[in-house]
Amino acid sequence: MPPPSEAALRYAIIDRCLTNPYKPFPTMDVLKWEIERELKTSVSTATIQKDIAQMKKGEDEGGYSSPIKFKRSNQGYYYDLDKFPDYTIRSFGLNDKEIEAIELAAGVLKQFQGIKVNDTFNHAIDKLFSSVNIKKTAKDEILINAIQPEETTYMRGMEYFETLVSSIKKKIPVSFIHYSYDKKLFKAIIIHPYLMKESNKRWYLVGYSEEHKEVRYFGLDRIYDPVLIDKEFKENKGGDLRTLFDNKIGLNTIHDKEVEKPEEVTLWVSRTMANYIKSMPLHKSQSHKEYGGYGEILVTLHLVPTYELLAMILSYGKHMELLTPKWLRKEIEKELERSVVKYKKNKA
Q: Residue 138 contacts by C-beta under 8 Å, 6 or more apart in sequence?
């Protein structure tokens, strides 16, 4: 069984430390420092000791048969290269299950080829296929045809994806022209970029905007001609941005940003859709209880109301009804009334 991804990353770092000829016999403190530096997370001594023990186990137990030894005089670890010359886990072959897992992942990635992101991306997918010896056989065609994710369409601005990701990694501010769909205006913006966020099949650049003096997000489809600029980078000091959107469905809040706060949203769901909603929650805060004795359920969400939430509720039609909060129910009523008027007005 292949190791969990985080453990595998730690194994790789330990392996690099043990095969570094310029810094032989790394101590536990050195291993700990290297792992925390590369993974940007804390790790305990006990965890590293377990990792070393696991690496020493055989392949049948998920290990690498690593000949790791401890040298007391140096208080450090090393590979017994006298018995196992040039040993490294990087030379280990993949077992059948690991190859199958990579083939499956490569099959999914293959669906994204042809998207106009950049040539490097498509080349990387081809390289992944060739590295695990995926050949165009009848069996492989069955594998590819057995995986059919929702088609990914090209969105304007995706040609800048690589440039923007590079600016995030290198911590370099980026200047671009932003087009507002609402105001129908072009404006020069300087962003100190922190992350790329996908929402509802659209990509957004998140970062500190010098224009707005706060963290904002900008849709890639409205970004033109991004350029990295020589300017001091403003670090994010507002908390973990990976959790910035955890309490939302989508990005576009109904209230102003200044009064943005999570609320309790209660939904009635019909018996027809109840099992679907239970098996695939609308949001990670979702809880539910049976209602009425006929298979209906009441769903409770704790999140910031967004236009995407409103659109999602409307998409379920008669199978979903928003009960609270009352102000959001009024918003849905207005939206439905406008739709009814429009349909009646344009009736043939």
A: none
pLDDT at 118 over 60: no
Name residues whose C-beta falls within 8 Å of residue 230's C-beta, 6 or more positions apart in sequence. none
Is there a domain that residue 271 lies in? yes
CATH number at residue 221: 2.30.30
Q: Which amino acid is at 88?
A: T
* Tens-digit pLDDT profile for residues 159-204: 888 888 889 988 999 999 998 888 888 989 999 999 888 887 788 9
Report the pLDDT value the prediction gives residue 347, as an integer from 0 to 100.
Answer: 64
Q: How many domains does the chain have?
A: 4
Element spanning 48, H or E = helix 45-56
Residue range(s) defining the domain that contains residue 52: 5-91
- Distance in angstroms (rounded) separating the CA atoms of residues 252 and 309: 9
Contact 188, 174 (CB under 8 A): no
In angstroms, the CA 44 to CA 243 distance is 24
Which token pair is 138?
A: 């009848």
CB 95, CB 59: distance < 8 Å: yes
β-bridge partners, 188: 177
**CATH number, domain with residue 299:** 3.30.70
pLDDT band at 256 (very low <50, low <70, confident <90, very high): low
